Batch of 2 targets.
Target 1
Amino acid sequence: MIYALLIAVLAPHCWAIPLAQVDLHLGSSRSLETIELNPYPDKPRLTFRHDGTFKVTVFSDLHYGENPWDDWGPQQDVNSANLMNTVLTSEQPDYVVLNGDLITGENTFRENSTTLIDEVVAPLNKLKIPFSSTHGNHDNEPNITHAEEIRRELRVAPLSYTRAAPAWADGQGYGPGTYWVPVYKKASDHSPSLILWFFDSRGGFSEGANSTSLPDWVDEAVATWIELTVSQMNAAWGPADRVGRGSLAFVHIPPHVVQDLQANLNSTQDPGLNDDELGSGSTQASGEDTSLGKDAPFWDALNAHVLNLHGVISGHDHGNEWCKREPSKNVIFCFDKHSGYGGYSSTGWGHGVRNIVFRSPNPKVGPETWIRMEDGETHARIIMDSSYN
Ligand SMILES: *[C@@H]1O[C@H](CO)[C@@H](O)[C@H](O)[C@H]1NC(C)=O
Ligand SMILES: *[C@@H]1O[C@H](CO)[C@@H](O)[C@H](O)[C@H]1NC(C)=O
Ligand SMILES: *[C@@H]1O[C@H](CO)[C@@H](O)[C@H](O)[C@H]1NC(C)=O
Ligand SMILES: *[C@@H]1O[C@H](CO)[C@@H](O)[C@H](O)[C@H]1NC(C)=O
């Protein structure tokens, strides 16, 4: 009740708010937490272009900072920076996502590990392209953490939209990179037409002398954060299905359910490289019932509460590029393209990006997505809409 009044006061010009909408069943004081619905008051609003399109380019698994003790390592970072400059100059995206494993943290030194972030973001700073990051298992190591990378990125990249989750949803401190970014049809709009969601799947190793491996799935507290956030968005802006608000989600380690998709890929319908056999460690950890991952609370909440979800995009498995519809939630999943010259690779995989082009702010019009290689070759194009397998 108090919560409903609070929202009504904060958003007096909005829809009348039925009490049922804020009855969260959260079973805790979390339902009283306020989610900031204008999270970037000091940054330019992200908007669709005048022709109604919005283009996202995803760099994944850049793996900066490998083998700083020999010539090979630093050369890979030069190659990755060249790839970023080439792709950004020709693609001219409206937004860039760095989808995890920005840095090979196990090769870094305590005293200067996050200075690698300066190198990663340099092409984005130079070309003034707004972007944000998810973080991967290699970004949590004894000499670096997701939180440290986020702090550094915000200090050195004026157009970073990366944020940190509230402390109760930060995965015990190892998964702070959970947040959302609004995209408006035009800058003066009251509410966004598209929400880009970013989730922290943790993983890697803890800091300190006695480092232990960290949970490699999105923490279950994030399920509560999703429910709370969507409920407040709905109260302020109207429900996504009624007002026409779309969503797209990014998480470094693929959801556990993706593991079962690989056996039934059809290379015509689900095009793209399929060279990395998924197994233990390839997706978010399995639970006791292995058909359900430990990410089940997150996965269920995402699919239950975020309506008009165009898809979920992950990196982590460098030899996979394919998309496939996940039947249990009826949601499209896509792998990124391995972008970095660091990180494991194999003959013929090459390096590139995934492009995602929204063709309209209307969520009924699904985005088009494809892989673009460094040399400009493109393949594995699909439309992420209801006609997709
Ligand atoms: C962390 O950094 C310290 C100090 O530079 C270095 O001695 C150590 O080898 C690094 N540890 C790891 C696990 O890379
Ligand atoms: C960090 O320091 C180490 C050890 O002095 C050096 O080899 C490495 O190149 C430095 N890395 C960065 C990113 O400055
Ligand atoms: C790490 O483990 C060693 C051996 O068990 C122990 O002596 C030491 O105190 C531990 N260090 C920390 C920082 O916990
Ligand atoms: C694969 O997809 C194509 C195109 O939709 C279809 O014609 C073909 O029958 C599918 N193959 C299998 C084995 O399902």
Note: The mean pLDDT is 93.
Target 2
Amino acid sequence: MTSRMDVPFFRVCLGEDEIKEVTDVLRSGWLTTGARVRRFEEQFTRMLGLDHAVAVNSCTAALHLALEAAGVQPGDGILVPTHTFAATAEVVRYLGAYPILVDCCSDTLNMDLADAERKIADVRSGRLDHVIPPQTRITGMIPVHVAGYMMDLDAINAFAAQHGIWFIEDAAHAFPAAWRSSPDGPWQVCGSGNSKAACFSFYANKTITTGEGGMLVTQDEDFAARVRVMSLHGLSKDAWSRYSGGGSWDYRIIAPGFKYNMTDIAAAIGIHQLERAEVMRLDRVRCATYYRQVFMDSDAFDLPLDDACHTHAWHLFPIRLNLNVAPFSRDVLVEKMKENGVSFSVHWRPLHMHPYYQNIGWRSEDCPTATAVWPRLISLPIFYKMTDTELEYVAETLLSLTKR
Ligand SMILES: *Cc1c(COP(=O)(O)O)cnc(C)c1O
């Protein structure tokens, strides 16, 4: 038995390269958007093999800009998974549109397209009249690749085509991640599909970080141009380059934009995090492989999926407690884990079970799978350079607390 220790949920790991690059920025006197942001964007597009990337100060900002560039209008309906973080749906409200909350799959925790189909029918039939007017124009959807396990891109494409809607990927967990339709098919990296854009997060505990930050990638040049303009007050294109010293002093405001640009300080961290992204991912694969193996025989909880069609980012390791087998409820179990020094998190209380969405009229029975899975969820610590001792201690603690 490993002796008692404290295991954090996440430990940020920055190298000397990040520290030196930030120091160089501070000494350079140019703190805001400049050469390093450009370099970060270029490296990002090269790494994904995509055409356009716009660095911003959060994934939430990237999602907001993407919806704006997609032309979301007040009153539009946008399909959003209920099993996600606040950001995915709040950006829809920023633009005065309605998030239509969609249930999740019980195993992947990703958005359930069969329920998305039902929700469209429910809106049309007036069954969701108390939250969404039946005549609402449903224009898009925002799938989330939960924990970094990508959704089936062929299925999303087919769904979007069938309903004549676009989609924007909330890829906050999915860097780097990839998907293929069959074990011998070609890989598709997150962001390379038919989405209008994919939005990544560099929040402190995400798979790579810039402290706070985000990146929007797209294959569409005009879309990228709109996002870039709107990320900086809606100033015309050459005004943007004035930030790196080359632009015009006489800028033009072409739309009421936002203030979402990334700083060179943040990009300095990102440039070197990016170089190590795959090394860091492989180290999380080591953690996930250990958990999956050591927990294989426990029937007290179900493990996250992995298979030959996914390059999993392993941002999270969410287990689902089997409430009729485990000796404690989730709430009691996590308290006991905490007493034993093991930190945890829960991703997430579904949106339809939060007061804001309940007050709008969403009910537990609107998304029954997410409602049922919520009291089962625990996210275990998983991060780059988590030690073998830490992994063993988490596993031993959880197994001893859940054995009958
Ligand atoms: C973290 C997260 C976001 C928001 O990212 P920020 O960079 O903090 O804005 C959006 N969606 C999901 C699913 C997230 O986990």
Note: The mean pLDDT is 96.
